[in-house]
Amino acid sequence: MVEVRISELRRIGAGREAEVYCLDERRVLRLARTAALRAEVERERVALLAARRCGAPAPAVFERMDVDGRPGLVLERLDAHDLLAGMLRRPWEIARVPGALAGLHTSLHETVAPAELPDLRTEVAERLQSGLVPRDVRDAALRALQQLPDGDRLCHGDFHPGNVLRRRRGGYVVIDWKAATRGDPAGDVARTRLLLLGAWIPGAGPRQLQLLLTPFRWALYAAYLRAYQRQRELERSAIIAWVPVLAAARLSYDIPQERTPMLALARRGLHDRRA
Ligand SMILES: Nc1ncnc2c1ncn2[C@@H]1O[C@H](COP(=O)(O)OP(=O)(O)OP(=O)(O)O)[C@@H](O)[C@H]1O
Ligand SMILES: [Mg+2]
């Protein structure tokens, strides 16, 4: 195998869990930040292959590659920018974002997921076992989860504008498939709702500044949902039923800026349900 040195590679992207380096014209190396993420990297490889096999717009996946003990995947290099960066840098492009998100998301949800993808409800139940989820919240969320529907559709699990890339030559690609599951589309839309409205945006400034974005985030979610519902039937109540359960499971990601609002959302929803 060719020896690769990280110091000789150009970094072209970074997220919470991975850094992306340019290998050549055609390929990038998506390298996990720590050796402990080996299982996640393997999970992403399986999910990427599954998503590609059923025709979803995902980057091609080549071989596995470790550098300095960090696990990585060699992926198709996309000549593209993500829609989150696009909205922040080119606000005039915002108008086409909801339609693009909805078109992609409905097409995933029309797809029956390959059997090798984990089950959405099982995945959420596992996340709820995290020590970061307070016991009362975990117990209530597990009870609520039992009432939520099963499903067999392709769910991305982390579908937000930062994970949708627009190719320079046109067309969209969805990245970051490590949380992909087989399940109820309403759950996947509920996760997008949670992320669009409440996720901490790294690099978008301090909390007070991010709070100013709240009305824009609601407007984006409302426009996305309208566009989604024009293409696929989906009751608002079916989405809302998932929200507190997913908010509770989100605590397991250990994002300090999100802890208080996610906990409040989980407690409010799970408490209302009991009442
Ligand atoms: N195949 C690719 N080709 C070109 N750029 C890419 C590719 N995959 C990812 N990137 C760039 O790297 C950035 C981070 O990638 P990615 O979202 O996969 O990392 P992550 O750590 O999983 O992110 P997150 O914080 O969402 O968990 C992306 O926003 C994108 O700009
Ligand atoms: Mg990402």
In terms of topology, how is this protein built?
Elements: E1 10-14, E2 18-22, E3 27-32, H1 38-53, E4 61-64, E5 72-76, E6 80-82, H2 83-89, H3 97-109, H4 120-128, H5 135-147, E7 153-155, E8 164-167, E9 172-174, E10 181-183, H6 185-198, H7 207-211, H8 214-231, H9 236-250, H10 256-274
Antiparallel strand pairs: 1-2, 2-3, 3-5, 4-5, 6-8, 7-10, 8-9
Helix pairs in contact: 3-8, 4-5, 4-9, 5-9, 5-10, 6-8, 6-9, 9-10
This protein binds adenosine-5'-triphosphate (ATP) and magnesium ion (MG).
Plain-language structure description:
The protein is of the alpha+beta class and 275 residues long. It has 2 domains: 71 residues, Phosphorylase Kinase, domain 1 (2-Layer Sandwich), CATH 3.30.200; 195 residues, Alpha-Beta Complex (Aminoglycoside 3'-phosphotransferase, Chain: A, domain 2). 47% of the residues lie in helices and 15% in strands. The chain has 10 helices and 10 strands. The strands form 3 sheets. It has a 5-stranded antiparallel sheet with strand order 1-2-3-5-4, with helices on one face. A 3-stranded antiparallel sheet has the order 6-8-9. β1 and β2 form a beta hairpin. α4 packs antiparallel against α5. The model has no long low-confidence stretch (mean pLDDT 94). Bound molecules: adenosine-5'-triphosphate and magnesium ion. Magnesium ion (MG) binds next to loops.
